[in-house]
User: Fold this.
Amino acid sequence: MVQIAYYSITGQTDTFIQKTGLAAHQIEDAHPQYRMGSPYILVVPSYQDFMMDSIVDFLTYQDNKKNLIGLIGCGNRNFNDLFAQTAKKISTTLNVPILYLLEFNGTPLDVKNVRQIVTDLSEGEPTSEVTKPKELGKISFLSGYHDETR
Ligand SMILES: Cc1cc2nc3c(=O)[nH]c(=O)nc-3n(C[C@H](O)[C@H](O)[C@H](O)COP(=O)(O)O)c2cc1C
Assistant:
């Protein structure tokens, strides 16, 4: 099973993760350095960069960058172009695909779609059955799965 790591400041992302019923590691500000050790998806809310030090500490810890295979971005569409800016920045910086975007603690459809994505990924399948949010084009995330260059 693909693992999940997530970060939450005001609790929305935490609530979303609980709604999915999926086991996940919560990145803690007090000790963000935690080694995932195998492929995982990172679920991140969006804030200004200076509020994301724990995410940077987590991603740069041991082989966490290498094992990151996809991102799920949480945010608020009222931020317009800055919607899900944290996931977008990590995606660009580390060349890791965004698998899904959602607002706040997610709708029932978001819960269903993310569960589907995690299941498909765990089985090595593309997520073709999931309708992607309008900000995302067609995603072929498995193409970067074994990229050793990043
Ligand atoms: C100070 C602050 C800045 C935020 N900046 C952004 C942003 O740039 N883009 C975005 O999509 N959402 C932004 N949000 C919304 C949060 O990302 C969103 O509410 C998210 O669900 C919060 O997740 P959390 O409760 O797990 O921390 C911001 C919220 C706050 C309070």
